[in-house]
Specification:
This is Transcription elongation factor Elf1. Keywords: Elongation factor, Protein biosynthesis. One of its GO terms (molecular function) is translation elongation factor activity. The chain is an alpha+beta fold. It has 9 helices and 12 strands. It has a 6-stranded antiparallel sheet with strand order 1-2-3-6-5-4, covered by helices on one side. The longest helix is centred in the last third of the chain and has 22 residues. The radius of gyration is 31 Å and the shape is elongated. The chain starts with 18 loop residues before the first strand and ends with a helix. The protein binds zinc ion (4 copies). The site of one zinc ion (ZN) has 8 residues, from loops.
Length: 319
């Protein structure tokens, strides 16, 4: 696939070159983004759709995982990567709640942190008390997804270091978002569990699209860091690559199907152009088996001749 690659722009956070990434959107449309893994920032050009296929999400998350924890402190003011004018904060209302981004006033695009981008797409959720106990049982601590900071007050909603909302990966939502390609949900066997992940409490196999708690040991599925996502990406990627578009048909199929169809002749096209094809006739050639009785040309001619005969008779009678 040929993709027009612009010159690398500088990251508005650290001024290092942004990484250009081409992601698969819905129906294999290419979505181009630029990101800085060190600052956990993504830049979307104006009008660039964020509707990614499952494979697009795998590609984006893998690029994000180059540096799972960002130590970068973002400057309070950041500039557009295209025109270098100051970006302004905007709040978006999405179906998953509020989200924020930085936008260029000239319409060049939007800058988002990884956390806010994932939250906007509904892939993150609020922290529950049970999450903290699950993490404690695993010997982990709750981390800010954006900057990795760990010492937060139990009721804190925002990270005191980077001011990002404190959220966790919504594992069933993410797993479901990953299982889509070519506009279709992946067709899986009803009882298959191809994304099986093992419970961090007892090792039992869990289905990440549906189970948030282990039925065997009650341990919760709690992912408060980006690195937890990696085994899910490894499990889903081969399934996505194997998925073919549903409507894909070999070349020439349509041509062969239309052979012997009267509508494919030049004469038919001429009649249609001159408005000489009645809807009934068109329908008859489309569905010969359910065509209504023919009230075509012969009937019209017969009526016309009849009318002429009547008029002629009336004229001669008067005379
Ligand atoms: Zn950066
Ligand atoms: Zn701009
Ligand atoms: Zn933080
Ligand atoms: Zn378990």
């Amino acid at each position: 696939m040929y993709v027009n690659v612009p010159a690398p722009a500088a990251c508005p956070g650290c001024q290092q070159p942004l990484r250009h990434v081409v992601l698969e959107g819905h129906y294999a449309k290419a979505v181009q983004v630029e990101l800085c893994a060190a600052c956990h920032l993504v830049w979307f050009d104006a009008f660039e759709s964020v509707r990614l296929s499952g494979l697009g999400w795998v590609q984006l998350l893998r690029a994000m995982l180059q540096q799972p924890v960002s130590q970068a402190v973002l400057p309070p003011k950041m500039a557009c990567v295209r025109c270098h004018s100051a970006l302004v904060g905007v709040h978006n209302q999405t179906r998953f709640g509020h989200s924020a981004a930085m936008e260029c006033r000239q319409g060049h695009g939007q800058l988002q942190t990884f956390t806010l981008l994932l939250a906007e797409r509904g892939l993150l959720r609020a922290v529950l008390p049970v999450d903290r106990s699950s993490l404690a049982a695993e010997g982990r601590v709750f981390q800010c997804l954006q900057c990795g900071a760990a010492d937060h007050a139990p009721q804190a909603k925002e990270c005191v270091y980077c001011e990002s909302p404190l959220l966790m990966v919504d594992v069933p939502r993410l797993a479901s978002a990953l299982l889509v390609r070519h506009g279709d949900v992946l067709q899986l066997e009803p009882d298959a569990n191809p994304l099986a992940l093992s419970c961090r409490g007892c090792g039992q196999s869990l289905n990440p699209t549906a189970q948030t708690q282990c039925p065997n040991c009650d341990h919760g599925v709690a992912w408060s860091d980006l690195a937890s996502v990696r085994p899910l990406l490894d499990a889903v990627e081969p399934l996505l690559l194997a998925q073919q578009p549903r409507e894909a048909r070999p070349w020439g199929t349509r041509l062969r199907e239309r052979q012997g169809d009267p509508r494919e002749t030049q004469f038919y096209r001429f009649l249609k152009h001159a408005n000489l094809v009645s809807p009934a006739q068109e329908n008859a050639s489309l569905h010969p088996e359910e065509a209504p009785p023919d009230l075509g040309w012969s009937t019209v001619w017969q009526l016309l001749v009849l009318v002429l005969v009547v008029l002629f008779t009336m004229a001669t009678c008067r005379g």
